[in-house]
Design a protein that fits this description.
The chain is an alpha+beta fold. It is built from 3 helices and 6 strands. Residues 10-120 form the DUF4440 domain.
């Protein structure tokens, strides 16, 4: 598991767990009673439910998917809490019924620190869409 010693470490830790399709590592990024809202508005509470939500799709349609995360900002709420926003580009392959494509989402996460380790308390994922048509929109990615 990737230990998170500062809030922005969540980007790499989440991306690494997702890209290795290691749902136990993904679950370990969250507090035991954390909440998760996926990009379709499905709400779950608790690490077990978060893993249960992700394990089947990583065994099937997201089995060849990857994430690429990019920090937007970190907003401290004191010494032991922070809100973080980051872009996440999901790229799926041939395992997805719609075939290879990319989806951009904006993630908002609340992290808290306990015993010098940060974990996710709540995470919400929103798909970028055209409000007039509902079609997915890809944002312009910054060049390195």
């Amino acid at each position: 598991m990737n230990q998170m010693s500062q809030p922005e470490d969540v980007l790499h830790a989440f991306q690494t767990a997702w890209n290795s399709h290691d749902m136990q590592s993904l679950g370990a990024l969250f507090h035991e009673n954390a909440t998760f809202v996926n990009r379709f508005g499905h709400y779950v509470r608790g690490v077990e439910a978060i893993v249960k939500l992700h394990a089947p799709i990583h065994a099937t349609i997201y089995g060849d998917s990857t994430l690429d995360n990019e920090l937007i900002d970190v907003i401290p709420i004191g010494n032991d809490a922070a809100v973080i926003h980051f872009w996440s580009r999901l790229t799926v392959g041939a395992a997805h019924p719609a075939g290879p494509h990319a989806v951009d989402t904006l993630i908002l996460a609340v992290l808290t620190r306990q015993v010098d380790e940060w974990r996710i308390k709540a995470l919400e994922n929103v798909t970028l869409t055209n409000p007039r048509t509902g079609e997915a929109v890809l944002r312009d990615v910054r060049s390195p």
